[in-house]
Amino acid sequence: MEPRYQVGVLSSIVNGSPLIVSASSYQTAQILHQSANSPDIEELWIDAYNFSESLQFLSVFFAGMPSGQEIVYPIIPRSGLVPIFKGRRLTNGASLLVFASAPSTIGIMGEMNRIVTS
Known about the structure:
Layout: E1 4-8, E2 19-20, E3 30-34, E4 41-50, E5 56-62, E6 71-75, E7 82-90, E8 95-100, E9 106-116
Antiparallel strand pairs: 1-9, 2-9, 3-8, 4-7, 4-9, 5-6, 5-8
């Protein structure tokens, strides 16, 4: 059977509005996306922007990764959308979490493409 593509949204995005990152530490990180618990593959396309007046850092990690192993992106203030993930794939219920260097300074937008394999 040939795989099929379905366009979807990140699980934490509601009505297409950006997710405002309110968490500011590893311990309080919020879920950005949780993939379906299936063999289907979900491609994530994620951009972030900084609406504060100072440099902020966005930390991204997969559930189960120890503190200190997160991917850290510098997000320059008011510089438009910064690509974070360009087609990164998740499967089998994997969760992607985020936190910012200061709460409520970074917005995240994106989409998810599901590759249906079953």
